[in-house]
Amino acid sequence: ETRQNKVDQPTRIKTNLRNFWIQVDWTQSGAISIQSPQRSLTRSVQDDVVFSVDVSCRGIPTIHWTFMSAAVSRSIGTWQPGVYTNITVDYRDRVKPYNNGSMGLSDLRLQDAGYYVVTVTETEGSSKDAGFVLKVNGEMIWVLMLVTGWILIIQTYDFEHTSTAERLQRGRSQCPFSIKNINLYS
Fold first, then answer.
1. Is the full-model pTM beyond 0.70?
2. Nearest to 144 by CA among 155, 135, 129
3. Parallel, antiparallel, or unpaired for β 2-4 and 177-185?
4. Per-residue pLDDT tens for 54-63?
5. Are the CB atoms for 121 and 66 separated by under 8 Å?
6. How far apart are the first and last CA of the chain?
7. Nearest-angstrom CA–CA distance, 86 and 166
8. Tens digit of pLDDT for each residue in 85-132?
9. In the chain, what are the domains?
């Protein structure tokens, strides 16, 4: 016979009428807990952020973080505290995994803005998700040019927030900007 106990966890009761004994097997379904003090975060370009969670479950959890935006969805990394860590190449230099399930992301870029999902899977295979929203404030750059009597104003976003000298040192002389708006006045 199976019935639900007070906290909606299944309880199995086995009876043997010949010997008059009862064995109670308390099992917990959905025993995964993901606690977080803040699910909506705002940071600036080049800041660091910690997606703070406190994960609990039966056994050693498998923690998986995913990034989603309007343009992309990609895996960030998977780890089991004290067992293994596997961070994808795109994030390897910027992600710090924590044993409680939290994840640190350093040197933020405008394109890091989006939705982050942590999936916690326990040994038996059940899982639970929690989502976070990250807004990244970037620096807008206005370029004003006077071209033969015309004023050209270009509004851009600095995605990398690095100086030209730093980009040249890394061998990246191409423009890291995204043009948002162009106005031409005479």
1. no
2. 155
3. unpaired
4. 999 989 999 9
5. no
6. 85
7. 29
8. 999 999 999 999 999 999 999 999 999 999 999 999 999 899 999 999
9. 1-30 (no CATH), 33-137 (2.60.40.10), 140-185 (no CATH)
| CA dist., res. 180 & res. 154, Å (int) | 8
Pull the structure tokens for residue 102. 């939290």
Q: Which amino acid is at 20?
A: F
Q: 172: which residues sit within 8 A by CB, 6+ positions away?
A: none
CA distances from 71 to 74, 105, 112, 150, 172 (A): 10, 20, 11, 35, 23
Q: Which residues contact 158 (CB under 8 A, 6 or more apart)?
A: 45, 110, 138, 139, 140, 141, 176, 177
3-state secondary structure of 58: coil
The strand pair at 33-35 and 21-26 is best described as unpaired
